[in-house]
């Protein structure tokens, strides 16, 4: 039986994916295919490379990703994300999909054609970063003379990429809606509006997941809350552990007792 893991975008909240993955691995659940977009592409790449969830969390905490971003002087975005390429090559030196331990599929959007594009062969890091290029914030990533932006613009839970390659699909969705304090800044308006727009296109994909993991507590965190990495990791882990019986039943395996 092959199990596929699909990881959504959600900015800093994507760190919760690592907690989800840790809980699933503790249940003895392997991953035979991984698909992800935006933050889910980063979590997926680190996992597919063979890092444990705790190791991946330490990488994110210690790498100071924000420090590697540079202003985008051509005004197609506020920041350039390609300056972080060398950072990720430190942790994935082979920089290829073929060098990963688990097959990975990364979704980005061709800005000019307006079509989703799946990367799964060849160069790895640039496509992963392209999948994270939130429009208006990051300058589009150029790959083979094409401009790419965040895959979540068109598909924030890319189940379709692997649903026919596996028997069971586990979806980890961190772009959670819920009541929050009133928005009081321009950044907050942009962030909340993007979350709403992306969410409206994602719900129809929930039904394609054998198991959907969507910790409601994530609604209290923002997409820029990178300083709360350990909290986000804990939320993903604890919620997934609370679903252990349901998960084991869905996979048709003996239930693993939780603490």
Verbal overview:
It is a single chain. By secondary structure, this protein is of the alpha/beta class. The chain is 34% helix and 18% strand. The protein has helices spanning 16-26, 39-49, 53-63, 85-91, 125-130, 186-206, 229-242, 244-251, and strands spanning 3-7, 33-37, 70-71, 77-80, 104-110, 115-119, 136-138, 141-143, 146-150, 168-172, 211-213. Strands 1, 2, 5, 6, 8, 9, 10 and 11 form an 8-stranded mixed sheet that branches. A hairpin with a 5-residue loop joins strand 3 (70-71) and strand 4. Helix 1 packs antiparallel against helix 3 (53-63) and helix 1 (16-26) runs parallel beside helix 7. The chain is globular. It starts with a strand and ends in an 8-residue tail after the last helix.
What can be said about this structure in brief?
This protein is an alpha/beta fold. The chain has eight helices and eleven strands.
Tally of contiguous helical segments: 8
The secondary-structure element order is EHEHHEEHEEHEEEEHEHH
Largest sheet: 8 strands, mixed
Beta-strand residue percentage:
15-25%
SSE-based structural type = alpha/beta
> What share of the residues lie within helices?
25-40%
| Count of individual beta strands | 11
User: What oligomerization state is this entry in?
Assistant: single chain
| Coarse morphology | globular
What is the radius of gyration?
A: 17 Å
Mean pLDDT: 86
Low-confidence stretches: 66-73, 254-259
User: Whole-Å distance between the termini?
Assistant: 27 Å
């Amino acid at each position: 039986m092959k199990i596929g893991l699909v990881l959504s975008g959600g900015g800093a909240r994507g760190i919760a994916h690592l907690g989800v993955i840790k809980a699933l691995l503790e249940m003895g659940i392997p991953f035979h295919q991984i698909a992800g977009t935006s933050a889910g592409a980063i979590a997926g790449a680190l996992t597919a490379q063979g890092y444990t969830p705790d190791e991946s969390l330490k990488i994110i905490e210690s790498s100071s990703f924000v420090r590697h971003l540079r202003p985008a002087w051509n005004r197609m975005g506020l920041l350039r994300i390609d300056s972080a390429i060398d950072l990720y090559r430190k942790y994935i030196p082979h920089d290829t999909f073929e060098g990963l331990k688990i097959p990975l599929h990364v979704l980005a959007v061709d800005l000019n054609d307006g079509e989703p594009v799946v990367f799964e062969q060849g160069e790895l890091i640039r496509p992963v970063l392209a999948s994270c290029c939130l429009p208006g914030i990051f300058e589009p990533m150029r790959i083979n003379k094409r401009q790419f932006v965040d895959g979540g613009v068109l598909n924030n839970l890319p189940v379709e990429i692997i649903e026919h390659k596996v028997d069971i699909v586990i979806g980890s969705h961190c772009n959670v809606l819920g009541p929050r304090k009133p928005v009081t800044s321009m950044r907050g308006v942009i962030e909340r509006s993007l979350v709403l727009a992306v969410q409206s296109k994602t719900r129809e994909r929930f039904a394609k997941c054998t198991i959907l993991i969507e910790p409601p507590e994530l609604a209290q965190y923002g997409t820029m809350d990178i300083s709360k990495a350990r909290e986000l990791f804990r939320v993903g882990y604890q919620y997934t552990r609370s679903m252990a019986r349901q998960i084991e039943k869905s996979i048709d395996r003996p239930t693993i007792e939780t603490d």
